[in-house]
Write a structure and sequence with these properties.
Layout (H helix, E strand, L loop, with lengths): L30 H13 L5 E5 L24 H13 L5 E5 L5 E6 L13 E5 L8 H4 L2 H14 L3 E5 L4 E7 L4 E8 L9 E3 L1
Parallel strand pairs: 1-2, 2-4
Antiparallel strand pairs: 3-4, 3-5, 6-7, 7-8
Length: 201
């Protein structure tokens, strides 16, 4: 479980065009936590390496939306993200899963260093994002049509993104088997009244 808010995070970049964004000294985790994290992965004998991750690790192209170019995720710390990814690939680590919150949306990524040009051989992890239970989703900050359009554009601009839902509330269930991992998103029918109805994506 990583801390990406307080432990060692350097100041967030002002935007993706900030001249300091590629600086290798900029860190999401801080030096102590980064060393601990790398050691935990290196020494793990678990079949699945499940990483509790607060903000999206996968590269995310948001160039279609001037208001959504956030540096409050790993997009704002590309040098450290690349270092972690290259370490995972160099050590030939397998079966890595990032579990991520923060965005009030559901996500499923195939994690790669080059999202725009990736192939199956380049993948080194998967990332699953959990929806919000009751916090405001995209359609509650904008219109439903705007939220649906955003979903379509995220998929269009990010070929490594396989699922996104910024509208429905609920939770995600991750089940691990020896040979596979299964993520299931359960969405509730309503937040407006006591109701146990839900559906499975």
């Amino acid at each position: 479980m990583l801390d990406e808010r307080l432990e060692g995070r350097t100041k967030q970049a002002a935007g993706l065009n900030d001249s300091t964004i590629l600086n290798a000294t900029r860190s999401m985790l801080g030096p102590d936590q980064l060393v601990w994290f790398e050691q935990q992965l290196k020494n793990s004998t678990a079949v699945w390496k499940v990483i509790g991750n607060q903000v999206i690790f996968s590269g995310l192209d948001e160039s279609f939306n001037e208001n959504a170019k956030s540096t409050d995720n790993w997009n704002g710390y590309p040098a450290e993200r690349k270092k972690i990814a290259e370490s995972m690939k160099a050590k030939k680590m397998n079966d890595i899963i990032f579990l991520t919150g923060d965005t009030h949306a559901s996500w499923a990524f195939e994690v790669t260093l080059e999202p725009k040009m990736y192939q199956a051989k380049d993948l080194f992890a998967v990332e699953f994002g959990t929806p919000s239970i009751s916090s405001g989703n995209w359609d509650e900050r904008h219109s439903v049509d705007t939220a649906k359009l955003a979903e379509q554009l995220y998929l269009k601009y990010n070929p490594h993104l396989k699922h996104v839902n910024g509208i429905d509330h609920g939770y995600m269930l991750l089940t691990l088997y020896p040979q596979k991992a299964k993520a299931e998103w359960y969405y509730v029918n309503t937040l407006r009244e006591p109701n146990t109805g839900e559906r499975l994506f």
